[in-house]
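Good day; I would like, with your permission, to put a structural problem before you. The record follows directly beneath this note:
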Amino acid sequence: MRKFDYDLFVIGAGSGGVRAARVAAGYGARVGVCESSRVGGTCVIRGCVPKKLFSYAAHFAEEFEDAAGYGWEVGETSFSWARLIANKDREIDRLNRVYLALLSDADVKLYPVHGKLLDSHQVQLGEDIVSAEKILIATGGRPWTPEISGIEHGITSDEAFYLKTLPERVIVVGGGFIACEFAGIFNGLGSGVVQVYRGEQILRGFDHDVRDTLAGEMTEKGIDIRLYTNVTELIRTTGGQITAKLDDGSELQADTVMFATGRVPNVQNLGLRAAGVHAMPGGMIPVDEYSRTNLPSVFAVGDVTSRVNLTPVALMEGHAFADSEFGGNPRPADHDFIPSAVFSHPPVATVGVTEKDAATHYGEVEIYKSEFTPMKHTLSGRREKTMMKLIVQASSDKVVGLHVVGLDAPEIVQGFAVAVKSGLTKQQFDCTTGIHPTAAEELVTMRTPTQG
């Protein structure tokens, strides 16, 4: 007689949870998973997928303008927010069905309810209780908003995907990935945008040249970036508008105020304390390199662990967990040289260390930097710039940081991330023939350090 209902039970059917469940089931494990929302997680349902669709939509206004430089006469154009929302919803529905099929095809049992730990081997699912030899927590993250008066009048990125109409005036509060992306989206679609950030520059944690370049380009596009500023109160007026009071004593008027002020691990009503799972004050579940918690039968992957909050990282962690625990191939999750992108306008992509951190990790470094007008804009007349930067360890000649702001940055850096991850040297970059004419060739033709 089997001691447990399942070999593995996964709480959360987002990217990391689904990957772990499918791979473990492929190794012959009996797997169950619960999800109180739609299968697919933040990325698919209310994150990177719909956000990038919105980003595509927001670029068309500039494309219509740029066409004239290439001989095209574009007639009268109009934009339908309702149509964009409907088309986005249809695509998310399709992806949700794909994820459901992935679980079904892998013979993973799905419970469409909230899961709560009772102890290190039992999960409560509504009125039912299931047991498992191993439990994986993959509940992701949720938006965090500050405790200010009138916060109920604001929205987060979750609600932004379902607004009934495109707001004429938007205040975006925050300076990270999500804030910069939505500032660009609303601006590109025609909204007046003010971005309010308490710090000294947007994109904290990124290379300083990336931060300054993007801020300059966003400002050039008409986004009003207010640094060293915070919202202290929201007031809904009788006309339905929102007055935002700022800590410098000024006020802003808007139709929508969106808070992109960070995300926290989604551990509400998860039963961690009762089950004996250690969690940090902010909710983060600490794990080792094999995603083990303090309990030998309980594991965690993805944003709930706050290691590196990116969808491909959750996938990697979930796969490594399943290989280690059910595939006979113990391997730690590898968090070195993880590339990332910000789908701002223009986009950002990066892999490796910033210039500021390079000295700490690699000692003396050489910096190669180039800023130029991409070829596309030589005829369009647009003043948007591209910035590319390489950080090279002097002692080994290895490229340890690569940063791009500009057209197609994420597509460019995905390929170069293989080189940086593999430890290629600046000499090997230099020996690589560029593809001409492209922006990416700049990364293999920079010969003179700008400093170092």
